[in-house]
Write a structure and sequence with these properties.
Length: 303
Amino acid sequence: MPGEREVVLISEGFIKNITGLHVFSHEAMAAVFEILILHPDKNYAAQAAADAFALLDKLDGELGRFHSNGDIARINNMTPGQALSAGLDAFLCLMKSREMNRITKGAFDVTAGWLKDVRSTDNKKEIEPVPVGMHHLLFDETQWTITKDAPVRIDMGAIGKGYAADRMGTLLREWELDNFLIHGGHSSVQAMGGLPGIGGWPVSVRHPLDQDRLLAAPVLSGRGMGGSGIGQGPHIIHPGTGKPADKVLAAWAVADDAAAADAVSTALMIMEKDEADAMLEKERTISALTVYRGNGVVSRWRM
């Protein structure tokens, strides 16, 4: 199915041939996360990975809209005008979402993701009139409080895994690890250091309709990567129209961090080609590749 594995990592057979490379996995955020750590002491690597997965579970609770005690669920349940003192991670992730909303000129919007819930399974039902827009969220950076001026609802699904990968990477560096790759469901990747003789972590990007067709083979180090596609159904919603994205089959982005890469790959699923060209011409640290329905592959790769 297209888009199920947006980013294909190094092969299992290749991993087994690398001395000191250890792989750990954990399920959270409706995805399987994996941490690949290159270190001579497997026990030490396992302890670090366990610490990172504990952080992941904490972030899952805080950022998931279905966790009633989490910050995002609490924000969604607030009445307009009410202020919430948010935890650091929810606040920072929302601030990052606001930044990416600005960079993508509104194409990435965490207040639009939940609109998929109000569509019927055949995607023909009209969207109920609901407020959408990051401008409805008001941030007080001195008090870490968030207020909303309209009953918007937030879904962090398009950035939460990337944010988690970034935070887990920061934690692994506190363990003095400098050669690792983290991915959430093969769509949100954070990489540091690299494999011997390669200078990074090799991944592959393949055509969503033909997995034998290699589109790109970036080597990641100190960067984040995100992939989005329509293989899991109409889950990416245009914040302006309320309708599912349908012009793009899949999109990938490489950026300074996984959260930004996730947001850009989601935005590219929605943006017109000229809008994407303009954004990427301005944001020179971001690389991207997009597969348009019927119009081929457009590479804006700067790897």
